[in-house]
Amino acid sequence: MAINPYAGSLTGPFEGNGDCIYDFKDRFISKTEGLRFNEQDQAVLIRSYLIGNAKNVYNKLTQIQKNNINVVFEQMIDKFALTDEEYMNQFDNLKFNVEDGVLSFSLKLESLLNKALHGTNNENFNKLSKNKFIKEMPSSLRSQLSMHVDENWDAIVSKARKAISLMDKDTMEINNTNVKQKLNKTINEIECYNCGQKGHFQSKCPLKRNSNKPYNRRPINSQNPNNYHPSNLINEHQISSTKYNSYNHNQRAFMNQRDSGYEKNRYNNKPHNMYQNYASNNQYYQDPRSRPIL
């Protein structure tokens, strides 16, 4: 069977410098078995995924060893696998991160403990995994989860996932409430440029919205109720009357000048189209519109 060693990008390469040989083995075996590769095909394919120190160890194997995928992994595990104590130290130092999620944390915890104890059938596995899991949960959940310590592993993880999701929802609601309160406080301090009152923007001004014609900023006197004095109102009325009388006077003067004889003559003698304008400058010109039709 011809095999393309890079077909499908089965998994990342294994170097042996801090890489976990067990994780690499699980990924490689699961991917190749899913593609229905037999052990001989796997033995041929694995050469393309070993680099650095792992490649050097592989090159030192005999051809018979290279042809057996199980022997290849045994040699890699003997060379690069961590000791039980090292895996146990990683297990003890593992911390829960809310961003990673409860499920991701539980899988990492199981994987490290499985490597340290060489399997999940160990009697200490359930006890150690549950105690470590509950210990790393938020303090508000520890007492609740401790009440279910006698339940199986999946049930405890499921309860923790549900509780964390509810906590995240409550936190989001609290944050949204705080944002709304800050926004309302800010709006109450805003001064409208249209009416001078606080609590709304100019675009939302009720005086402007209820008006059918353009509305400019209110006069200075109307911004302060104390300025509504009879003398101020009288002065404003006098100013308005003066402007109106001045406008009428200018309008009447213009109409009288327009109706005078001088204006009439100047208007009548002014050419009103291109033909009259040309005829006024050329005495031999005849308006083409007045020519007889032949």
Automatic annotation (TrEMBL):
SUPFAM superfamilies to which the protein is assigned, alphabetical: Retrovirus zinc finger-like domains (SSF57756)
GO molecular function, one term: nucleic acid binding
Keywords: Metal-binding, Zinc, Zinc-finger
Low complexity biased stretches: 273-286
Region of interest (Disordered), ranges: 206-232, 262-294
Biased composition (Polar residues): 219-232
Source organism of this protein record: Brachionus calyciflorus
TM annotation in the entry: none
CCHC-type domain residues: 192-206
Protein name listed in UniProt: CCHC-type domain-containing protein
Classification via InterPro entries: Znf_CCHC, Znf_CCHC_sf
